[in-house]
Amino acid sequence: IPVRNLSEKQRKNAVIYIAKGEKEEDILGMLDASLFDNGKDGIVLTRTALYYKWNGQPPVDLEKLREVHEAGKNHIRVVYADGRCENLYFSIFFLAAKSLLDVYAEANKAQ
């Protein structure tokens, strides 16, 4: 959902429950998986990171992202510019997350 289509409640809850520490105005979009479309669960895309609420999983640093690989069922392995790697679990959001991360990785390689 593009930010312009998110409700105030979704934006507010997104920075409380998913993209902790971000500002509402930094949200670019969201895949809201909450039962009542209240923004408490899902994926949040900001200018600098991709957040997914899953057992304290770290956000993906989009500015330093260089490579994205499938790493098993619903898992994505990200590689950063400094060589650091992380294996991340995206459950039902696997395809959406991989597509978004691939775009950022390609754009970062071109810079």
Task: Provide a concise account of the structure shown.
With 111 residues, this protein is an alpha+beta fold.
Helical segment count = 2
Mean pLDDT: 92
Strand order of the largest sheet: 1-2-3-4
Which class best fits the helix and strand makeup? alpha+beta
Could you say which overall geometry the principal axes of the C-alpha atoms support?
A: globular
How many β-strand stretches? 7
Question: Which properties best describe this structure?
Answer:
111 residues; alpha+beta; 4-stranded antiparallel beta sheet; 2 helices
Topology:
Elements: H1 8-18, E1 27-32, E2 42-46, E3 49-52, E4 60-61, E5 65-70, E6 75-80, E7 85-89, H2 94-110
Antiparallel strand pairs: 1-2, 2-3, 3-4, 5-6, 6-7
Report on the architecture of this protein:
This protein is 25% helix and 31% strand. The protein has 111 residues and is of the alpha+beta class. The strands form two sheets. Strands 1-2-3-4 form a four-stranded antiparallel sheet, with helices on one face. The radius of gyration is 13 Å and the shape is globular. The chain starts with 7 loop residues before the first helix and ends with a helix.
